Amino acid sequence: MPASWKEALVIPIRKRCQENRTPDDFGRISLLYCFAKTIERMVNRQLIELQEEQKLLDPRHYAFRRGAGTGAYLTSFGDQSVTYDLNADIAILDVAKAYNTVWRHGVVQQLANCGITGHMDRFLHDYLSNRAFRVGIGGAQSVAYPEANGVPQGSVLAVTLFRWP
Predict the structure, then answer these.
(1) Statement: the pTM of the whole predicted model exceeds 0.70
(2) Paired residues of 135 in beta bridges
């Protein structure tokens, strides 16, 4: 994969009701090359099919699955709680900067443990290696900064690689 395809342009967006004095006061949008995202979609489709065929995800895992989601989970949970007259507390965990903390080598190793080898393994290893980003404000851009860890923000593969078993 060309190095330019592995570089994101990060655009800071002001959050409402914030003083906008620190970087955390801004949301970020990562822009990536369209052709790279097209390739990612093809790879992502294959990885999702593999996850479903090999039943790598727990059946109670609802997030980012076709035909599932928060609504499906809450409906299922509500039906069970009424049927069995259950009372329960629900905890929802939102980990700040979670995608940035993913250990890339661990993801590649988990993929290999699931039988992903050959071209797909080489592609994913290259895809996760030597990532960088620039910050763009107005018409100006920063120098490129390396991303040492995490899955690429704004990429098609980010969610699938983040939740890989």
Answers:
(1) yes
(2) 10
Which amino acid, residue 26? F
Would you place residue 91 in the very low, low, confident or very high pLDDT band (cuts 50, 70, 90)? Answer: low
34 — alpha (psi -120 to 50), left (phi > 0) or beta?
alpha
**Helix extents (H) in the chain:** 34-53, 70-83, 104-113, 118-128, 158-162
Give the integer Cα–Cα distance in Å for 79 and 86: 10
pLDDT tens figures, 29-52: 889 999 999 999 999 999 999 888
Rounded CA-CA distance 117/37 in Å is 22
CA separation, residue 43 to residues 80, 91, 120, 123, 130 (Å)? 36, 33, 8, 9, 19
Q: Are 56 and 50 in contact (CB under 8 A)?
A: yes
Cα–Cα distance measured from residue 38 to residue 59, given in angstroms and rounded to the nearest whole number: 29
